[in-house]
């Protein structure tokens, strides 16, 4: 069972996923690229571990191990690198133990604190509480790209060069600005498809010339067709959030 709530950490969401009983237990959902990084708590048999999920460039099948419980703090694009002390592109398409990024002593203390907490999500929020805010230009770039602005126009609006924007985007988001724009557009398209809009409507609303480019883009990121994300898709497993590695 998957649950999600707004976090006290600005721009973040807290989510949890527990094994589902019955025939769907052990099945894995599809994790779509979303430009986010997640701080993860993996708990199995009373043993827990802290990990970090980097930004994905392709959808992947989640780990459907029915014995594992997950809790995550999902940061908005560009918000996590300042906390982690690592450029986002170094974590792209990766799931790494937190001790690979921080000192072993620090991670042991944090692991103990999360393990003893009544609510692991709240404990993850405590870890992130001291995170500095994202760079103002970076945050504005993400908002403009989410509005489907051209990369050259975003750079001009920010008063920076294209090379600066490219370097800053890799460090903050893990992607070039062009790829981040595509990922954010994919998210909008999939939400619209799940809401029941036809591929033709979604293509027009997302700025594609017709359905064919939409289909190519969805397939490039997810390996699926647009219709696979519509409510009528039979027996479709619920997609998991970024970094969850389990069925939502």
From TrEMBL:
Q: What are the boundaries of the region Disordered? A: 1-28, 220-248
Output the Gene Ontology terms for molecular function.
DNA-binding transcription factor activity; sequence-specific DNA binding
Q: Which SUPFAM superfamilies match?
A: Homeodomain-like
The protein's UniProt keywords, in alphabetical order, are: DNA-binding, Transcription, Transcription regulation
UniProt xrefs under InterPro entries: AraC_XylS_family_regulators, DUF6597, Homeodomain-like_sf, HTH_AraC
Q: Where is the composition biased (Polar residues)?
A: 239-248
Q: Where is the HTH araC/xylS-type domain?
A: 135-232
Q: What's the protein name?
A: Helix-turn-helix-domain containing protein AraC type
Origin species, per record, is: Kineococcus radiotolerans (strain ATCC BAA-149 / DSM 14245 / SRS30216)
